[in-house]
Inverse folding.
């Protein structure tokens, strides 16, 4: 986390989360991994600007869950 004018997510942390969501969207993930991603996205959405939060939520919604 970075704190300047307001709390923000570090760029490399945002990029890593986005890359993980992209990889999981391509290959799918199990329910436990999806739940972990949901928590990470929820935490990140509290720190990033609205447009980035929406993008992360859209990417999470595109991740298929293997059962």
């Amino acid at each position: 986390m970075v704190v300047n004018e307001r709390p923000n997510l570090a760029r490399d942390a945002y990029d890593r989360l986005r890359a993980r969501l992209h990889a999981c969207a391509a290959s799918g993930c199990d329910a436990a991994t999806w739940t972990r991603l949901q928590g990470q996205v929820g935490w990140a959405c509290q720190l990033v600007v609205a447009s980035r939060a929406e993008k992360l939520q859209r990417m999470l919604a595109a991740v298929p869950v293997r059962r």
